[in-house]
Amino acid sequence: MPTYSETLRELTGRMDSVPDAYIAAVNKVQTEAYKRILPLLESLQLDPVTKQVLANAENYAISAQINQQMDAILIQSGMRTAITDFTSSLAEQRALTDTLYRTLLDDPRLSFAEFDAVWAASRAEAIGTVSTGAVGVFRDQVAGALNNSIGSSSTFSQTVSSIRNTVTGNAEVDGALSRYANLYAKDSFAITNRKYAEQVNKAYGIEFYRYSGGNKDTTREFCLERAGHYFHKKEIESWAGKQWAGKKRGTDTNTIFTFLGGWNCNHFLAPVPVDKVPVEVLENAIKKGWVKESELPKRVRGKLGLEV
Question: Global pTM?
Answer without folding.
Answer: 0.91
